[in-house]
């Protein structure tokens, strides 16, 4: 009997012949239970009777490799949807809920409290598999935790109050309630500081006294009354506490998982799949420089006007005007320039030229700023090759403050000033109001896309904007410049399918490609197998 | 109090003197060691320091195993600037020998940095690195508001050290055990709770209040309201000149209110009365519309409320200028600020390194004190070197600041003793 010829995904053929089953004790190495091992079926029954869980216990069973893969890929699709919806819509508003419901149903994940054991099992296992793929770097961990927390939040909110209480007690979250006397003393302060409290009579609501470190989301947004290090939380705000707990546990678990990873990677069957999973997150990240040196420094000014997205155009202008940019601006703009193809030497020359015109002398530049530019290109420090910021990153992290020019203008600028800026860039009045509408609805990437359409005079963009460098590449395509660029990007981006929301970003597509790719392999192998 | 003219070129000569005879090493060590037994092993040894040496050479991951090693090294290197970082899992100066990923920042004080340049859009007297007595009030307001909140009012911390940065701002070091153990997420949550000013160059209106107003904001407004008339209406004269008046009007609702105010301002020139008109308009707005109903409070906050740099507070491993470090450009020592005297604190009266070095040679007013120290010294010859060093800073203007630092440490020491007692109770040691 001859084995099928080798494929790009190693050893898969052998798997099919030898073992169709994968034992999952690798997931169990993360946490040791000192309790007496109960029968696995008992545990499962109890766990899967709950609509929601903290994923404290890893699954202990055998599953087939195909289930392993399909579970993982489905969950990844789900998390990507969570991510995209989170940027395009206000979290948990009607549109968001509807679309997420849809996706969950399509992907066969658990929904309401009815008989859902199979789906809950899938939920349980897929979560742990993705832990393996996403524990490896800080960025991956952060992303994974964020989406899992959002998903958890959505599910928790769907529980009714009885189920919520049950969940809390089953998971040992015992926070203390305050006495009626104390409630009375703090009456006014409690009412005005907790939105949730304002509708309901104070006497009827339980208030919990929780150390402020356990209620960070409420503290951060000042939605709670603080006294002597404790946050006073009404019962129905307990969601935020629970989320925090979930987040902390997951974070710790991922750190532990990362340590056991070498053992997992030694299993040749898993390594390629796990790598696929974590790379498809990054998708098109512009970290590999194409077209290095194809842009000359003289072109930058005109390119800024023609092909830069508004955020980068703003940064470039500020740099030219002030001959200086602060750290946030240098990072965002510097990495973008790297992404469009500036070489390290060019970048150093560019920044140096500009800063010298300002108050920085050549010496100081070489000492202080040159280091950080080389750092961006991976030539210093831990030699990490930093990737240019995606739209998501620009919109969501490090908001600009006084003296800063970075960030996303659609997100961070005053609407009035944004309007003036757009007018000065010769956008038509109707165009300006369309953009402002989108901004009001918090659809920042769509607003930027609209800006693209108006400035390039195209009706409908064929792409879904998710990255400033993508804007640049697409712009160059439209303007007909750079035939090389055009060919390369064609293979990387497929035309937008008519999906429900235009807000979904291109980051979604690689996941689809992955499963197609895997499906293809499976199909081919089946036929090979039959031949043999 | 005159500070001897400071010339940065003299720094290489002054620093050795400073580190040999004036820098309060004993107290410094006492602080960072946190009582030794009340914290985990090697707390001091695993602390990162960074030095900026002559010619802008910057060295990180410095660490020391004892007070005497710290002294020797600093006297050898004579750093221009000293920064304090986090307590790590291993000795920072051996971090290269540790497997990557295992070398982690574990604990650090919760810190805040208020820098005057962040207020450039609302102060007219100075800009950039300059400060004057008029805008210094902003620091006083910042200290009052933040100190109140970080203490038992909101967050329940007890040991806060406020330090003058040496040029244009203040730092706050929260040294409670609970503060040192905070995660990065917690630090950023605290910083965001305390932040009301949102927006960069492109944002005109940086403060937006919603109904109901949170108790913390209410308390902060009480503080701001106390200072506003003198600081904003008088010293900064925000309603006295055309361009600053326009800036204020930009923060007022776009409708009839603005038009009415513009008309009134044609006639009324007096700043205090103009402000009263603004307040009156605001009161009217409160009864009619939901939006913009607190706009006069928003104006006050935009002009006065503390602006902190969240990034400084967020990171557990962030390095911040050390107290008693010298500021190379101004020569001033980063001294602790006595909260009892915060109103009277004058940044221009803070001693420079040249002043205190000079004072070493010509003793200060209190000759008697020096004499009684002499007598004590004769009694105990053994500690004479130590005593001389103590006497040294005491004859300079640095004395009162070290004294205040001593008080701060004494208060903290009580809490360490308390903890040790509890621990020994648990272990049943007597």
From TrEMBL, chain A:
<keyword id="KW-0004">4Fe-4S</keyword>
<dbReference type="InterPro" id="IPR007238">
    <property type="entry name" value="DNA_primase_lsu_euk/arc"/>
</dbReference>
<dbReference type="Pfam" id="PF04104">
    <property type="entry name" value="DNA_primase_lrg"/>
</dbReference>
<feature type="domain" description="DNA primase large subunit C-terminal">
    <location>
        <begin position="302"/>
        <end position="472"/>
    </location>
</feature>
<keyword id="KW-0235">DNA replication</keyword>
<keyword id="KW-0408">Iron</keyword>
<dbReference type="GO" id="GO:0003677">
    <property type="term" value="F:DNA binding"/>
</dbReference>
<dbReference type="Pfam" id="PF26466">
    <property type="entry name" value="DNA_primase_lrg_N"/>
</dbReference>
<keyword id="KW-0639">Primosome</keyword>
<dbReference type="GO" id="GO:0005658">
    <property type="term" value="C:alpha DNA polymerase:primase complex"/>
</dbReference>
<protein>
    <recommendedName>
        <fullName>DNA primase large subunit</fullName>
    </recommendedName>
</protein>
<comment type="similarity">
    <text>Belongs to the eukaryotic-type primase large subunit family.</text>
</comment>
<dbReference type="GO" id="GO:0006269">
    <property type="term" value="P:DNA replication, synthesis of primer"/>
</dbReference>
<keyword id="KW-0238">DNA-binding</keyword>
<dbReference type="InterPro" id="IPR016558">
    <property type="entry name" value="DNA_primase_lsu_euk"/>
</dbReference>
<comment type="subunit">
    <text>Heterodimer of a catalytic subunit PRIM1 and a regulatory subunit PRIM2, also known as the DNA primase complex. Interacts via (C-terminus) with PRIM1. Component of the alpha DNA polymerase complex (also known as the alpha DNA polymerase-primase complex) consisting of four subunits: the catalytic subunit POLA1, the regulatory subunit POLA2, and the primase complex subunits PRIM1 and PRIM2 respectively. Within the complex, POLA1 directly interacts with PRIM2.</text>
</comment>
<dbReference type="InterPro" id="IPR058560">
    <property type="entry name" value="DNA_primase_C"/>
</dbReference>
<dbReference type="GO" id="GO:0046872">
    <property type="term" value="F:metal ion binding"/>
</dbReference>
<dbReference type="GO" id="GO:0051539">
    <property type="term" value="F:4 iron, 4 sulfur cluster binding"/>
</dbReference>
<feature type="binding site">
    <location>
        <position position="448"/>
    </location>
    <ligand>
        <name>[4Fe-4S] cluster</name>
    </ligand>
</feature>
<dbReference type="GO" id="GO:0006270">
    <property type="term" value="P:DNA replication initiation"/>
</dbReference>
<feature type="binding site">
    <location>
        <position position="408"/>
    </location>
    <ligand>
        <name>[4Fe-4S] cluster</name>
    </ligand>
</feature>
From TrEMBL, chain B:
<dbReference type="GO" id="GO:0046872">
    <property type="term" value="F:metal ion binding"/>
</dbReference>
<dbReference type="InterPro" id="IPR002755">
    <property type="entry name" value="DNA_primase_S"/>
</dbReference>
<keyword id="KW-0804">Transcription</keyword>
<keyword id="KW-0235">DNA replication</keyword>
<comment type="similarity">
    <text>Belongs to the eukaryotic-type primase small subunit family.</text>
</comment>
<dbReference type="GO" id="GO:0006269">
    <property type="term" value="P:DNA replication, synthesis of primer"/>
</dbReference>
<feature type="region of interest" description="Disordered">
    <location>
        <begin position="364"/>
        <end position="389"/>
    </location>
</feature>
<dbReference type="InterPro" id="IPR014052">
    <property type="entry name" value="DNA_primase_ssu_euk/arc"/>
</dbReference>
<keyword id="KW-0479">Metal-binding</keyword>
<keyword id="KW-0548">Nucleotidyltransferase</keyword>
<keyword id="KW-0240">DNA-directed RNA polymerase</keyword>
<keyword id="KW-0639">Primosome</keyword>
<keyword id="KW-0862">Zinc</keyword>
<keyword id="KW-0808">Transferase</keyword>
<protein>
    <recommendedName>
        <fullName>DNA primase</fullName>
        <ecNumber>2.7.7.-</ecNumber>
    </recommendedName>
</protein>
<dbReference type="Pfam" id="PF01896">
    <property type="entry name" value="DNA_primase_S"/>
</dbReference>
<dbReference type="GO" id="GO:0005658">
    <property type="term" value="C:alpha DNA polymerase:primase complex"/>
</dbReference>
<dbReference type="GO" id="GO:0003899">
    <property type="term" value="F:DNA-directed RNA polymerase activity"/>
</dbReference>
<feature type="compositionally biased region" description="Basic and acidic residues">
    <location>
        <begin position="372"/>
        <end position="389"/>
    </location>
</feature>
<dbReference type="GO" id="GO:0006270">
    <property type="term" value="P:DNA replication initiation"/>
</dbReference>
């Amino acid at each position: 009997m001859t084995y099928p010829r080798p494929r790009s995904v190693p050893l898969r053929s052998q798997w099919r012949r030898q073992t169709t089953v994968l034992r999952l004790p690798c997931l169990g190495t993360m946490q040791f239970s000192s309790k007496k091992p109960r029968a696995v079926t008992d545990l499962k029954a109890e766990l899967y009777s709950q609509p929601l869980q903290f994923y404290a216990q890893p699954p202990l069973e055998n599953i087939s490799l195909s289930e392993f893969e399909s579970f993982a890929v489905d969950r990844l699709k789900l998390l990507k949807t969570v991510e995209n919806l989170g940027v395009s819509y206000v979290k948990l508003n009607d549109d968001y809920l509807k679309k997420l419901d849809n996706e969950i149903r399509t992907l066969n994940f658990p929904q309401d409290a009815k008989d859902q054991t199979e789906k809950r099992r899938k939920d349980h296992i897929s979560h742990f598999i993705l832990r393996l793929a996403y524990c490896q770097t800080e960025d991956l961990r952060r992303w994974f935790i964020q989406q899992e927390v959002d998903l958890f939040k959505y599910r928790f909110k769907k529980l009714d109050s009885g189920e919520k209480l049950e969940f809390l007690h089953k998971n040992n979250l015992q926070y203390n309630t305050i006495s009626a006397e104390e409630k009375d003393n703090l009456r006014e302060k409690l009412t005005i500081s907790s939105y949730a409290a304002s509708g309901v009579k104070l006497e009827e609501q339980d208030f919990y006294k929780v150390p402020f470190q356990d209620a960070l989301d409420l503290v951060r947004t000042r939605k709670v009354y603080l006294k002597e290090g404790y946050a006073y939380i009404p019962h129905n705000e307990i969601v935020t506490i629970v989320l925090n707990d979930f987040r902390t546990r997951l974070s710790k678990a991922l750190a532990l998982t990362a340590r056991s990873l070498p053992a997992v990677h030694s299993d040749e069957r898993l390594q390629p799949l796990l790598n696929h999973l974590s790379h498809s997150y990054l998708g098109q990240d512009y970290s590999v420089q194409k077209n290095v040196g194809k842009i000359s420094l003289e072109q930058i000014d005109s390119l800024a006007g023609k092909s830069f997205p508004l955020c980068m155009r703003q940064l470039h202008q500020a740099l030219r005007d002030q001959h200086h940019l602060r750290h946030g601006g240098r990072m965002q703009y510097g990495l973008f320039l790297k992404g469009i193809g500036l070489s390290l030497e060019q970048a150093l020359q560019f920044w140096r030229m500009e800063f010298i015109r300002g108050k920085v002398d050549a010496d100081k530049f070489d000492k202080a700023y040159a280091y950080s530019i080389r750092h961006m290109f991976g030539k210093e420090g831990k030699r990490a090759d930093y990737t240019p910021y995606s739209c998501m990153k620009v919109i969501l992290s490090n908001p600009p403050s006084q003296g800063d020019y970075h960030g996303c203008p659609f997100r961070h600028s005053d609407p009035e000033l944004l309007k003036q800026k757009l007018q000065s860039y010769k956008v038509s009045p109707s165009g300006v109001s369309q953009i402002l509408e989108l901004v009001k609805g918090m659809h920042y990437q769509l607003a930027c896309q609209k800006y693209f359409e108006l400035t390039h005079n195209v009706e409908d963009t064929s792409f879904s904007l998710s990255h400033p460098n993508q804007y640049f590449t697409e712009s160059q395509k439209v303007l007909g410049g750079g035939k090389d660029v055009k060919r390369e990007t064609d293979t990387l981006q497929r035309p937008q399918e008519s999906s429900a929301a235009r807000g979904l970003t291109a980051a979604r597509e690689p996941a689809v490609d992955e499963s197609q790719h895997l499906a293809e392999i499976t199909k081919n192998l089946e036929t090979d197998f039959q031949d043999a | 109090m005159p500070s001897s003219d400071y010339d940065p070129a003299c720094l290489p000569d002054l620093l050795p003197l400073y580190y040999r005879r004036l820098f309060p090493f004993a107290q410094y060590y006492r602080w960072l060691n946190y009582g030794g037994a009340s914290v985990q092993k090697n707390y001091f040894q695993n602390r990162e320091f960074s030095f900026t040496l002559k010619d802008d050479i910057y060295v990180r991951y410095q660490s020391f195993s004892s007070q005497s090693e710290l002294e020797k090294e600093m006297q050898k290197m004579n750093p221009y600037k000293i920064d304090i970082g986090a307590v790590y899992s291993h000795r920072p100066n051996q971090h290269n020998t540790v497997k990557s990923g295992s070398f982690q920042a574990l604990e650090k004080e919760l810190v805040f940095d208020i820098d005057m340049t962040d207020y450039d859009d609302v102060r007219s007297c100075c800009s950039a690195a300059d400060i004057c007595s008029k805008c210094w009030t902003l620091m006083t307001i910042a200290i009052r508001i933040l100190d109140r909140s970080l203490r038992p009012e909101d967050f329940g911390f007890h040991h806060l050290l406020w330090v003058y940065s040496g040029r244009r701002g203040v730092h706050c070091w929260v040294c409670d055990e609970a503060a040192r153990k905070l995660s990065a997420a917690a630090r950023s949550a605290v910083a965001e709770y305390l932040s009301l000013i949102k927006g960069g160059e492109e944002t005109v209106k940086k403060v937006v209040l919603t109904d109901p107003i949170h108790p913390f904001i209410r308390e902060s407004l009480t503080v701001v309201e106390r200072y506003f008339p003198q600081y904003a209406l008088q010293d900064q004269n925000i309603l006295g000149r055309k361009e600053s008046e326009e800036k204020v009007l930009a923060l007022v609702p776009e409708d009839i209110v603005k038009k009415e105010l513009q008309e009134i301002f044609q006639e009324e020139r007096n700043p205090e009365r103009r402000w009263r008109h603004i307040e009156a308009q605001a009161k009217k707005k409160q009864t009619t519309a939901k939006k913009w109903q607190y706009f006069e409070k928003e104006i006050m906050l935009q002009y006065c409320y503390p602006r902190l740099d969240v990034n400084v507070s967020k990171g557990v491993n962030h390095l911040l200028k050390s107290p008693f470090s010298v500021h190379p450009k101004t020569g001033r020592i980063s001294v602790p600020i006595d909260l009892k005297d915060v109103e009277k604190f004058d940044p221009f009266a803070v001693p420079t390194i040249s002043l205190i070095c000079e004072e070493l040679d010509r003793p200060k007013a209190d000759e008697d004190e020096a004499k009684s120290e002499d007598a004590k010294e004769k009694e105990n010859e053994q500690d004479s070197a130590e005593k001389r060093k103590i006497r040294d800073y005491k004859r300079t203007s640095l004395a009162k600041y070290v004294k205040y630092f001593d008080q701060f440490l004494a208060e903290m020491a009580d809490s360490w003793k308390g903890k040790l007692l509890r621990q020994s109770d648990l272990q049943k040691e007597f």
